[in-house]
Fold each of these.
Amino acid sequence: MTERQKKLLEIIVKEYVKYSKPISSKNLVKKLSLSSATIRNEMNELEKKGYLIKPHISGGRIPTEKAYKVYISSLEEVDVPINVCVSDFREMTKILAELSGGFAFGGIRQDFHQSGFSNLLKEAEHDEDFSIETRKIMEEFENHFDELFEDISDNQTRVFIGKESPFKKTKKISLIVSGCNTPEQGLIGLLGPMRMKYDYNISLINKLKQLIEQDYE
């Protein structure tokens, strides 16, 4: 992939996350010093390489899982000011759900908390496939939680996109999860649509994790 294609792909991902609509070459002319024809040719190349798909015959393109992986690999953390006290995992989970707009969970193995399921339901109102995946995930979440996250034991923040998720048969949901360095190994995680603000959500999780770890020192 050329540097120009990387830049184009980054802009397409950001625009799609923001507007949730297929992106056309005309949408991007003002953001790049390129003609519509040149952008269209580059988008064709990105589509051939599997980074974009065209959901409709006449219309723009949307990023694939492969595109999100490239985008995430080059992300830098953003500043996430949190002006509230985070004293326990219950409070941390609630704050994560409120600030991210996703479904948050956190705690230690024997004492987990969750918040924000209604956020997933709002997203599901506009997407039947997302709705079906959400219901399946909640069944797995409640019945097999420890099994799903038994390998998440380090403090590295990890991102699972679509089919990479430990949840079975998901295509439209992403997961961000990290272990917490607490006396009893803790965990913090976020479920949301693949079309999410990864830079903000990753930074938010890292900030909350830092605050909860400080509280346990």
Note: Strands lie at 52-53, 62-63, 103-108, 111-115, 158-161, 173-180, 186-193.
Amino acid sequence: MISFDIESDLYNKNSILIGVDEAGRGSWAGPLVSTACWFDFTKYKSLHSEVNDSKKLKSSKRREIILSLDNFVKYSSSIASVKEIDKYGLSYANAIAMKRSVFSLTEQLKNLQTYKKTEFCIYIDGKFKPDFENLDNILQFKKLHLYSCSVKTLVKGDSLCKTIALASIISKETRDTIMRQLSKKHPSYFFDSHFGYGTSNHKNAILRNGVLDIHRKSFKPVATIYSKKI
């Protein structure tokens, strides 16, 4: 059952909880979106009462929750592009997106004059635990520079932890918005209805119209269709 238990425990330990979740892992098209989220636990009663796993909420409710957020909530959403997914593989690209969102959020939190705690505890939804340090060393872009950090995974975290649930809501709605915009550019693919996932309508659209640059050609179903077209 979703609660504030993790937030309360870490607040009492003088730690900053950052919840991380992503959207779009299984999609055949479009970017993967990761969101890192934090809120001031002293104001937890001001958080929208219906924050929950994004999969349990309609789009209208997700937008309502996002629009209700005030300054006591900070978050950052980042993407891994289709090119990165095809080049590095899904898990590595997921780590890249998470790293970007965590880096941006921690930079915001370090600059908060009223919030001096520097020990970060990052909770990531699911089983996947990215190796941020190794990622920095290999890709050689901006490093996390966390003063003190622990990274933990939490299976079904978006149903257990309010901060992760909020991250899931923002990731889901952000990615759906991207796919709606892509649908306007490519109306014959109906991205605004399946959001890039492997539905029969999506497969039929690819068979009729071909594979786009925004399709993940490293994914077997798309790769199979793509190979037959060239």
Note: The first strand starts at residue 16 and ends at 23.
Amino acid sequence: MTPIQFALIIALASLLAWIPFALIGARGRKAGGATGGQLEALPVSDVTDVGRRKFLLRGVGFASLAFLGQFALASIDFLYPRLRGGFGSKIDVGSAEDLRAELGSREPKFIPDGRFYLTLYEGDPAEAADIPAYKAANVDVSGFMALYRKCVHLGCSVPWCAPAKWFECPCHGSKYSVNGEYRDGPAPRSLDQFRVEVVDGQLIVDTATIIAGAPRGTVTTQPQPEGAHCVTA
């Protein structure tokens, strides 16, 4: 539900809540007009009671509207996305040159705010350009990969296994290469990823859109583990 849709629902609810008070007020005014000539004959106490009831009725109505209005504004403020940083926005990871040197050790860098691992693409850029998932993520141009940490099987967080230099899911044993390509287990595809761009020397990762991972059978690099597995099944 978008913030605009939610605001319309709150406005409609406020209007519906006001209708009973409006109808009661209208009946009171109608009754007052029909017997307007007799008001002077009513005792002072009765006239005072009528005025008090109208005052209380209007007070309750205005209080209800004020409450609903504050509730609507608070709800919209709470639900409206603030994409100034973190997951769901474009994240400035840092200098592309510095990151390239840091990732040269072949150890992925986990970015907590974006919930992804940053790695260098180890395959041929020309080959990456022919894979739709890699093309959408700009892998062939940037040379980087931002891999979503969630296993595409059932959504478990996938840690990095340093001995094997693979990502290995502890829940059901799915395994992925250093570039997130499917290698083993029940996962239906490779790890999902995000688009990476280099802008004015800075590495920008757009976590607003999750790009589905490459299909099973995609092998552009590291077909075998390089050491012992961390997860055995």
Note: The CA atoms of residues 10 and 71 lie 8 Å apart.
Amino acid sequence: MNIHIITSKSGVSFFSFLLNYGVGVKIYDNPSVKKFLLKDLKIDEDYISNRIQTLFLNSKPIDNIDNAFLENGATLALSAAMPGTAGALFRKKGRYAAMRKQITYTDNIDIKKNKEGKIILKLFNMPAKELAGIIFERGVLIEKETLSLFLKNYNQRITPHIKEIHSDCKKKDKTIFFNRNLKAINLKVTFS
């Protein structure tokens, strides 16, 4: 099922919560994390360098985004600087990076090459809010249970922000749409 939701710009804050759970994003030709962020998601290089301070690939902190490659089924998590000791310890190329050497992500030159695949992308704190528009307008894959739970929890607060809902290219009534069982979903959200 393909769902396209058109919402006001004020609706972006609600959809950013979905990024904490993780959304599926298609990848092509096992890109490096840097290439994926720059070319596929079209995130500004300054933003990547200065705002995204903590990155995890398959639960391992990343220091070098040029040498971390995505493969089908991987999970990539991004965050701004986290507070406290954990923030200092896991910050990319931070002064305490040597203390986590055993768990730090290392080059994965032996990854299984795929022409196409899917990763789970998770964003936290400010990047979730600031990049939600870019990510959802590109389109994501989302589990029906996750979207159903999201809609159940935020239905009354998000409905006033929604202008239109299209399911498989057909315009739907939003009050009826939110009260039905959803199937596997390709979700695109446009903020205008």
Note: The first helix runs from residue 12 to 21.
